[in-house]
Amino acid sequence: MRDAVIATRFTELVGVRHPVVQTGMGWVAGPRLVSATAEAGALGILASATMTVDQLRSAVREVKSRTDAPFGVNLRADAGDAAERVRIIIDEGVRVASFALAPSRELIARLKDAGVVVIPSIGARRHAEKVAAWGADAVIVQGGEGGGHTGSVATTVLLPQVVDAVDIPVVAAGGFHDGRGLVAALAYGAAGIAMGTRFLLTSDSTVPDAVKARYLAAAVTDVTVTTKVDGLPHRMLRTELVDALERSGRAASLLRAVRHAAAFRRESRMSWAQMVRDGLAMKHGKDLTWSQILLAANTPMLLKASMVDGRTDLGVMASGQVAGLIDDLPSCAELVDRLMAEARAALHTLPGTD
Fold it and tell me: How far apart are CA 149 and CA 174, in angstroms?
């Protein structure tokens, strides 16, 4: 139903047809998924943290060769090469820059001066207030139901707090997979929804079929939160590997982290000096131990093992709780069309609506 359009402040801001965002998932949100999302009328976001600078430029150009629709790039504001990645976004005319961590006031200003829409992802009201004061154009608010790194506050509690605290468009993430969720988010005052797991589980996603099958087989109770991957809360599918990580001691965890740090250094083509600088940047202003910083190398490599190599026995699978509600693999176009049709149908069932 291509005519099932719901215009919001978010769609007007970024120039998409539908108030739906595909999040920047490492090893998952590549050119094929992002361009398919963009063609479907939603905002696709490339995940650049697992790409080298050259790979990012190539990925941006590939998306542009596949679609003329707006799309975004997600990057780490504290990365040592963040300035180079921002230059690519500006030079290549990318519409949106999104951030997993709050970008600096100066970085926001640089992007906005170049006409780029800046949309940080946040997990607390005070973070939304900070980036809004610094000039962010919108925020993505992820509640505890979301996949990957997550907080403990549910979307239904966090979202209205943020909507009431800032006057920029708010996009809700964490627990969304259908049109009813979009209508609920709009009722809370959001200007759209963002989904990760739901877009991962599409036919346009490059995630191996065996991994997708594990997601489709999962129940809601098969999704858990652990701190054993990188020292911070991480929501993922419960597997034998995750259970083994939960049982592992401190020494084994740090040894594994060192091994994965070396592998990530080779994968990212970073020097040890660059990795140390990034570690210092991660620690600055945050309550992180050096053990947590070292463990951070686990995340990209354990995700790559599953999302790229298909090794569910050797890798972890970041997942929102909604994995337990998903049972099919539509294309991005089919997913977005269905979601918007469901939203329209849900709106018509509400009292006082036509």
Answer: 11
